[in-house]
Amino acid sequence: MACESAGGYPTGALFWNEVAGAFIDGLITRHTVARRSRARGALGKDVIKRLRDYIIAHLDEPIDVTKLANIAGRSPFHFTRVFARSVGTTPHRYVVHLRLRRAIELIRDERTGLAEAAAQTGFADQSHLSRWVRRVHGASLLELVA
């Protein structure tokens, strides 16, 4: 979190929502006597499609979990849990995945440079994009698009 703060918060609000959710989950787990059963529920395929369409249309902008929760008709706190249960990953990771996929497509088309692809897909800069590629794919961006 200190690196994120020092870097000017390049991963955005979804990252902080994920960190806050994990922190709250940890507090609840450590400070309750008996764990309650998890609330059941999942997002329907039509809601997931609307969310995906919104994210793809706004890849170059900061994407707020509150907006995604509104699209799904849930509170931000509940949305994060139901989304993760439905899709298998947090909203932040899902957005990063879609951004990475689009950036790689742009670079493979050879009409877009690294910096421009990063800007068009919502990464802070070329370095930020490269770090995420290495983190997710375990290879450099240039190795991946070659």
Strand content: under 5%
pLDDT under 50 segments (min length 5)?
A: none
Q: Alpha-carbon distance between the termini?
A: 33 Å
Largest sheet, strands/sense/barrel: none
Helix content: 55-70%
Number of domains: 2
Secondary structure: elements and pairs:
Elements: H1 2-6, H2 13-30, H3 45-57, H4 65-72, H5 76-87, H6 91-108, H7 114-120, H8 126-137, H9 141-145
Quickly describe the structure.
The chain is mainly alpha-helical and 146 residues long. It has helices at 2-6, 13-30, 45-57, 65-72, 76-87, 91-108, 114-120, 126-137, 141-145. It has two domains: 11-90, no CATH class; 96-145, Orthogonal Bundle (Arc Repressor Mutant, subunit A).
Describe the structure.
Helix 4 (65-72) packs across helix 5 and helix 7 (114-120) packs across helix 8 (126-137). The chain is 67% helix and 0% strand. It has helices at 2-6, 13-30, 45-57, 65-72, 76-87, 91-108, 114-120, 126-137, 141-145. It has 9 helices and no strands. With 146 residues, the protein is mainly α. The protein has 2 domains: 11-90, no CATH class; 96-145, Arc Repressor Mutant, subunit A (Orthogonal Bundle).
Features:
mainly alpha, 146 residues, 9 helices, Arc Repressor Mutant, subunit A, single chain
